[in-house]
Amino acid sequence: MDNKFHTNLIVSSSPHIVTESDTTRLMGSVLLALAPAWIASIYIFGFRALLLSVVCVAASVLFEYLFNVITHKKQTVGDLSAALTGLLIAFNVPSSFPLWQAIIGCLFAIVVVKGLFGGIGKNFSNPAITARIFLFISFSANMSTWPLTRLAESTDAVTGPTPLALYAEGSQDQIPDLLHLFLGFHGGSTGEVCALALLIGGIYLIARKVISPIIPCAFIGTVFVFGLIATGSPYWALFHVLSGGVMLGAFFMATDYVTSPKLPLGQLLFGIGCGIITMSIRLFGSYPEGVSFSILLMNICTPLLNNLSYKFYLKEGGAKNGK
Amino acid sequence: MSQRKHLPSIHVPHHKNTAACETVTMPIPDEVSISMSQNIGAPCQPLVEKGDYVKVGQRIGDVQAFVSAPIFSSVSGTVKSIDKVRGSMGGFETHIVIEPDKKQEVSEEVQIPVINSFEDFVKAARDSGMVGLGGASFPTHVKLNPKNLDECEYLVVNAAECEPFITTDNREMVENGQDVLDGMKMIMKWLNLKKGFIGVETNKPDAIANLKRLIEQNEIKDIEIVPLPSSYPKGAERVLVYEVTGKTMNAGVLPAQLGVILDNVSTIGVMAEYFKTGMPVVRRRVTVDGDAVTEPKNVYVPIGTRIADVVEFCGGYKKEPRKIIMGGPMMGRATKSDESPTMKNTSAILCFSQEMAGVKEETACLNCQRCHTACPFGLMPSIFADAYEAKDVDKLNRFNVMQCMECGSCSYTCPARRPLALTNKLAKMMVKEASK
Ligand code: SF4
Ligand code: SF4
Questions:
Q1: What's the number of domains chain B is made of?
Q2: From atom 4 of ligand 1, which residue's Cα is the shortest distance away?
Q3: CB contact, 8 Å: B292 with chain A?
Q4: Considering chain A, what percentage of its residues have pLDDT values greater than 90?
Q5: pTM of the model
Q6: Which residues pair with B71 in a beta bridge?
Q7: I need a surface site. Which of A103, A184, B116, B432 has the fewest CB within 10 A?
Q8: Which CATH class is domain A23-310?
């Protein structure tokens, strides 16, 4: 009689099934969405871009691994978020950036920004963005030396200005046309140059419902409208959308779940805020580019935006049932 | 009523493997164990003693309370013992263990009910022993006797069957469609309701076709089939009422307060059978499925049959079972042992091997808000979880944790595998405790 029954079955609370998509899969799909931009960067900047990305990914994963071992935390390298941070750091620096400095950036991102705040889900700012700013402050010369693309005609020079730097100087006539900007043949950080590839990745993430379209649309939309008002020309408005880090930032870094607001209203304001700060820095500030500062500042505003959107959410009764 | 909006829902794999499996009757087992706690409300007291001979359909448990339903013997045979067993809901339950003589002698008590008035009708409903067969196990006669009966206009039949695997409601509509419509007609007649709606997910084309055919054949004008999207949880009471009638039903509100009588489709069909034959609830249709079962089937199981006997009838286990769920995988309850007997609300027995049973390891919240977008009511489970941890009752209240119906959509969707529905349940208990 006793053996007839299975009396030691697993008892757990419902639901007893879960979706396939876990943290690893989500991070994996973001990595996949970055693949076109990665391939484009290697095509545009050559082998150094490949080397840089491999080193940054490996360093970030290693730092995360070691940090977890040293602090006796559950191992989290398998969730691919460290790998993602590493790739984004590579994308955010010039392809010629010294590897050891890039590694320091990874250390900063993984240990200081992420690890010390409690690991994935606890950091208040995006690790890759914060690392970019950290590197910019620490190694500004190397962070502002832009290798030429494979299309560059000049034979002696190996570096050149970014379109935004040209714009800031007032050398509008030297700026590549919109098609070149769109395809990525201009100076800039390794992964930010090819708007086309980033757009493909971004649309993929939205279609797969990995990210909501609110932040990227609000961010890019605001940059465009701001540009249109400030320059009075759709051409230059588009120029602002396609140059610098707007595409990379809007689709891949401003949308970081952990550091952006929870509710649609907050996300909308977050995106608009990113756009306004980016354009203010570009047009009125002393730096030619403002995407990373704008995202970092909005990261800091996120708790505020959350509280604000909760107020509206709760006024609606919270639950949508029947509304 | 024309404009029907949809609440947020999630896509879960349907696994309706047994949708086409005609219900088969299993042989009487060597022993049944009939629980006296088979409905929400008061448990029954045994009316028989050890050594008594009982017959099929004989009343063996009942209680005076209004919110209760009598319990009948599913077999003829001798009462072997009356046991106190640790029940599914925590505390102890009384079980009447009967050794069948396998003659299935029918009790003299089994009489076709005579119904001449609304009161007769409600009494007959109670005498059928009927409770919500979908899983809620709320006594049916209570639902049919609301305080504000004169304000009730509509009968809404829950045939969504949104839980994966389960196909018992589907089979009821395919095999006993006439009973379903007869039951609806009776309820509408005695409760004086204007119109009946059957809310059914479109993944049950056979059921819809059969009901449509019968409605046409019988020239029924006041019953309408409402196709629902095949997503989870369209069969949750509050979601269904909203999708069918457009009326918002908040937690703690009864459908009748919105003028709606709501019942599960199998409940209505089986009750109609009782009105025709006088045989109360002594068996039920159970979907037996899961990767550890050899031959998934729909089975008529005598109430009180142990899970192990039911599975044996389905060819036994083909893999070592590690988790057995009574009901669906989204809201059903995992049982510790396959010695547990089937009850009136056991819509399914799902046996999972280690592969499917493994509890996933919880990781850190990503703040992705998939839980929020999955929630039919737009609640924010990630906030509940934080507030629960911080014991912040005020915050739980402000974010309306009490509206949560524990449907599990949030837990299902969470990439970090957080047991959000469980936390919600605990958080609700915390809020109730604090308001005492
Ligand atoms: S779905 Fe899970 S990981 Fe995402 S916000 Fe909700 S609780 Fe956090
Ligand atoms: S369990 Fe509660 S919070 Fe979670 S989805 Fe269902 S109703 Fe919403």
A1: 2
A2: B368
A3: no
A4: 70
A5: 0.91
A6: B61
A7: B116
A8: mainly alpha
